[in-house]
Amino acid sequence: MMNNLALKKHLAQPKTSWQLCLLAALGGVASAAIVILFTFSIKELQNLYLVLSANYINSDLVSRMLLPIIGALVILLSAMLTGYQYLRTGIPFVLHRLKVAYGVMPLRNTVNQFIGSTLAIASGFSVGREGPAVHLGAACSSYIGNKLHLPFNTVRTLCACGIAAAISASFNTPIAAVIFVMEVILREYKVYIFIPIMIAALVGSMITQGVYGPAHQYEFFDKIDLTVIHYPILMLFGIALGILASVFNKSLTTLIAYSSQFSLKRRLLIAALITGICSAFVPAAISTDIQFSHFNTEFSQPVMMVLLLLLAKLLMTITALGLGIPGGIIGPILVIGAISGVVAAEAVVPFLPGEHLPTDYALMGMAGFMAATLNAPLAALLAVVELSGQLEVIVPAMLVISTACVSSGQFFKNRSVFVMQLEVQNLLYRQPPIEKTLQRVGVLAAMNTTFELVSDTHIDYLSNRYLKDEGKTLLISRAVDQPELFIWHQARVSEDNSVQSFDNHPLIAIDSRATLAEAYNALSDARRGAVYIYQQDKSKILGILPFAQIRRFLLEGNTTS
Predict the structure, then answer these.
(1) What count of Cα atoms within 13 Å lies in the side-chain half-sphere of residue 220?
(2) Do the Cβ atoms of 144 and 30 come closer than 8 Å?
(3) Cβ atoms of 488 and 454 closer than 8 Å
(4) How far apart are CA 270 and CA 275, in angstroms?
(5) Is residue 457 classed exposed, middle or buried when 0-12, 13-18 and 19+ CB atoms within 10 A define those classes?
(6) Separation of alpha carbons 186 and 193, rounded Å
(7) Sign of torsion, CA 346 347 350 355?
(8) Hey, which end of the chain has fewer CB within 10 Å, N or C?
(9) What single DSSP character describes residue 105?
(10) How far apart are CA 477 and CA 456, in angstroms?
(11) In sequence order, what are the beta bridge partners of 452?
């Protein structure tokens, strides 16, 4: 077994290893466990006042109106006890933390996410479980890496693994979870990251199946029966979904920006009031579980009633998320997409054949609306395939997804709702290409350990020491007036290989957990000199990392000196 420093140096490299896979599996177990606890808490809370978990339709009118208000008040109480400044949660906040802290999540944010989202979902707000699951999974996995003081590039990978395990545990969809992380969270495909994330998703799915069984919550959909004759209509439907997604995203982000001037108490109570009123008159809109939605059991409903359900669901989701109710967005947009599909099916039933058109178009709506809203076409495709358990959905879903994404993005300038949320909340998320590249490698993997700490800084002494080792040794000394400051003596060599003089560069201290990005930022202004790597004690040098070596990595992809 490698010692602690050797293990960290190994993990600092951008490559797949059994050690990283083992950590990914461990993070997957922790993430899946907290997601199961989260799901269990919601169901137990719902069982206190519902006959069936998540079945609000049979509740009386007064209960449906009061429940969101009571839930908002308890959420506010929880936020007051833990600190209002820690209420920012969900996928946009995780994206922000990946940018500024390699995915390490503050403890109070995680506590607020668990408690607040449990109360919000159990109270009937139109929010989903996957946003809290992503937050909780990221927190669990990154906590393990942070507690073990692993390099930050490894912590970032473990955070992504926790997210994949959490999504997989929430929906029992390991493939969609992996693609979602790559397409939406990390926005890059790298094999050395792909394998650990896939292992974590597999672990999450296995744990979920062990607790709840192998079934998906959407397996009640009938076998899809869409032939080529439906494809022109599906293209038009995709365009309509793209327009709807654009309206949804812009309405949500506009509300977030506008409501920021009001206090949190006012925002949550307004969201509760709107949810309560909509729930009172359109009971099917209160849940994000499709099997309890009214449109699924009574397709004979007039199209105007289904349209009313769609409008109520849109209003409840936009106000809940836009006004700060903690929870996810994917659950609601799947329901909105499904209801949109039922509306489309009702319009084409008289003209096109099909035994199960409402459910078929509901699946298409889920795929197209999710893809256009999140700007994640591949994740949406695989999500509906896994959720429905039908490979036959692939071709028609691809048609709907492609038309929805093209129409939404090209004609309405729509982007991922998460990116739009981050921008209106002024949260950093963009990474320059150089920074993204350098964050993949830890300083431990690139540092030069062939240095010598000298006491005599006279040029003759330094020249002798330098020539003795054929120029391979980095000569370091301590500053006389500042013993904690190290000076790097860099030789100037003439054409005849004789040492003419030495350039002296003060060394900047960098923690051993840092990546090349931190080292680059420390030296980018001067574009010369070096940093020294330490572990816990700044007076002890582990290695030296010159700026020239970082530049060589950017040009050649090689970390060796």
Answers:
(1) 11
(2) yes
(3) no
(4) 9
(5) middle
(6) 10
(7) negative
(8) N
(9) P
(10) 8
(11) 475
Distance from C-alpha of 271 to C-alpha of 73, rounded to nearest angstrom? 11
What residues have CB less than 8 Å from 493, skipping those under 6 apart?
471, 499, 500
Report the alpha-carbon angle 105-170-75, nearest 5.
Answer: 55
Token pair recorded at residue 391? 């490979």
Distance of CA 475 to the CA centre of its chain: 44
Longest dimension (CA), the chain: 96
pTM above 0.85, yes or no: yes
Q: Which residues contact 18 (CB under 8 A, 6 or more apart)?
A: none
Quickly count helices (H) and strands (E) in the chain. Answer: 24, 7
Closest C-alpha to 144, from 134, 131, 159: 159
Stated length of the chain? 561
The tokens describing 295, both together, are: 């449109």
The rounded distance, in Å, linking the Cα atoms of 73 and 76 is 5
Q: What sign does the dihedral 206-210-212-218 (CA atoms) show?
A: positive
Residues 287 and 56: beta-carbon distance below 8 Å: yes
DSSP class of 213? -
List the pLDDT tens digit at each of the 561 positions of the chain: 346 888 999 999 999 899 999 999 999 999 999 999 999 999 888 888 776 555 666 677 777 888 899 999 999 888 888 776 556 778 999 999 999 899 999 888 898 889 999 999 988 899 998 899 999 999 999 999 999 999 999 999 999 999 999 999 988 889 999 999 999 998 888 888 999 999 999 999 999 888 887 766 666 666 777 888 989 999 999 999 999 999 999 999 999 999 989 988 999 999 999 999 998 888 878 766 555 444 444 445 677 888 998 999 999 999 999 999 999 999 999 999 999 998 998 888 777 766 678 888 999 999 999 999 999 999 999 999 988 888 889 999 999 999 999 999 999 999 999 999 999 988 888 888 898 899 999 999 999 988 888 887 878 778 777 777 665 678 888 887 777 789 888 887 776 667 778 888 999 999 999 999 999 999 988 888 999 999 988 888 999 999 999 999 988 877 665
* 3-state DSSP assignment of residue 557: coil
Encode 174-190: b = buried (16+ Cβ within 10 Å), e = exposed.
Answer: bbbbbbbbbbbbbeeee
Best CA proximity match to 52, nearest among 287, 211, 275? 287
Which residue do the tokens 């035994």 mark?
355
Residue tagged 């069984």 (tokens): 213
Q: How far apart are CA 211 and CA 464, in angstroms?
A: 69
Question: Could you identify the residue written with the tokens 């001067």?
Answer: 526
DSSP conformational letter for 455:
S
Q: CA–CA separation, 204 vs 462, rounded Å? A: 57
Phi-psi region at 479: left, alpha or beta (left = phi > 0; alpha = psi -120 to 50): beta
Q: Which long-range contacts (CB under 8 A, 24 or more apart) does 502-508 make?
A: 502/459, 502/462, 502/475, 505/529, 505/530, 506/479, 507/476, 507/531, 507/532, 507/544, 508/532
Q: What are the tokens at 34?
A: 């907290």
Q: What is the DSSP string of 471-500?
A: T-PEEEEE-SS-TT-EEEEEEEE-TTS-EE
Tell me how far apart the alpha carbons of residues 260 and 168 are, in angstroms, rounded to a whole number. Answer: 33
